[in-house]
Design goal:
Layout lengths: L1 E2 L5 E2 L10 E2 L3 E2 L5 E9 L4 E8 L3 H8 L3 E10 L1 H4 L5 E14 L4 E9 L4 E3 L11 E7 L1
Antiparallel strand pairs: 1-4, 2-3, 5-6, 5-7, 7-8, 8-9, 8-11, 9-10
Length: about 140
């Protein structure tokens, strides 16, 4: 989802030699993504760090990491999901996942509840919770 380019690579060697630093990354798909503002603790020091996540399931990875404390998470949504002409970044209150049934098949759908009260769905075909079954909270 995020692509890096060799021309954006920075000549910084801070931690491990296997790590690379980039001045920018390219978003390869016109899809929502998440910005997680976190605190990292290694037992001695605490620093803040930002994670750019391509999937909501990666939020659970942050939650399950004992060295990471999530301060806030934002969804960055494209126009077709947020109903405007522009990309929008909004603070998340809750992320849930459920199922929607079509004629012959079932599909997963994500529900993004913003702190403003606004609700976004991972599919622009959905406009209410009534169409979604078996909803489970991923992040709250």
């Amino acid at each position: 989802m995020f692509q890096t380019h060799e021309s954006a690579k920075l000549p910084i060697f801070w931690k491990d030699l296997d790590e690379s630093f980039y001045s920018y990354a390219e978003l390869m798909v016109n899809s929502s993504w998440f910005y997680a503002d976190c605190k990292l603790t290694d037992g001695v020091d605490t620093v803040t760090s930002t994670y750019l996540l391509s999937m909501s399931s990666q939020i659970k990875d942050l939650i399950n990491n004992p060295d990471i404390s999530i301060r806030s998470i934002y969804i960055v949504s494209p126009p077709y999901l947020n109903g405007t002409e522009y990309w929008h970044m909004g603070p998340l209150a809750k992320v849930s996942v459920g199922k929607i049934s079509y004629e012959d098949y079932e599909s997963n759908i994500e529900i993004y509840e913003l702190k403003s009260g606004e609700i976004l769905y991972s599919s622009s075909d959905i406009d209410s919770h009534e169409q979604i079954e078996d909803i489970k909270v991923v992040y709250s």
